[in-house]
Design a protein that fits this description.
The protein has 219 residues and is of the alpha+beta class. It has one domain. The longest helix is centred in the first third of the chain and has 57 residues. The protein has three helices and eight strands. The termini are far apart.
């Protein structure tokens, strides 16, 4: 004699199978839609970041003073091979009346919370830092994110590139020291390490005549 529970058991299994396929189908549809949104957003984010970069370039060379007339900003790259490692930098040659006034380079590295993206300005021969801007950071609110504040960033302005900068906690005003943000020493050191590494790769490779700078037609 057949069990009276068999039909309901089969229906239960079929129902579960149908629900599983439905969940899978919905997941695929949702994943595809999310991927499309991310592609659109990534293009928008990249465009916004480029606009913000170009807007910051003059101030990273001339500071708060209004930029002079006849400024040309030329995008390009610099490829570096050092100690067995290859690095590629996006940078901008900033000129006035076709004479190099300085360089602005994009640099990145690991912070305390996530990746940091910086814009570093230098003079024409990379002998002095002329500006620093934090393009992207996800450091701890109220602590590490203070690396974006002008009061802290301005410590880098005017520093010589002759030797690496050092982060200190004693409010030293030495020519090669950077005061750490209270409670955010790691974030402070992360920015300083990125600056040191980047400047170390630029020195001797860029100068007023261009050096190893490779111009490109698009930013």
């Amino acid at each position: 004699m057949e069990s009276s529970s068999s039909p309901s058991a089969g229906g239960f299994k079929n129902s579960n199978l149908a629900q599983a396929w439905l969940v899978l189908l919905l997941a695929l549809c949702f994943g595809s839609a999310l991927a499309a949104v991310q592609v659109q957003l990534s293009d928008t984010i990249a465009a916004n970041k480029l606009n913000e970069t170009l807007a910051q370039v003059p101030a990273l060379i001339w500071g708060k003073a209004p930029p002079p007339q006849n400024v040309q900003i030329t995008p390009g790259t610099l490829n570096v091979k050092k100690d067995g490692q290859a690095s590629s930098y996006t940078l901008y040659r900033v000129a006035q009346d076709n004479k190099t006034a300085g360089w602005v380079v994009k640099a990145d590295g690991q912070g305390y919370g996530d990746k940091l993206e910086l814009l570093i300005g230098t003079d024409a021969d990379v002998k002095k830092i002329t500006g620093l801007f934090v393009l992207e950071q996800k450091e701890t609110p109220g602590l590490g994110n203070r690396i974006s504040e002008p009061q802290w960033r301005n410590q880098f302005v005017g520093k010589s590139t002759a030797k690496p900068l050092e982060v200190v906690k004693d409010k030293s005003q030495g020519p090669a020291t950077i005061d750490a943000i209270t409670g955010a020493t790691i974030s402070s050191r992360s920015v300083t390490n990125i600056v040191n590494a980047t400047i170390g790769n630029l020195r001797g490779r860029l100068d007023a005549s261009g050096g190893q700078f490779t111009e490109r037609s698009q930013p």
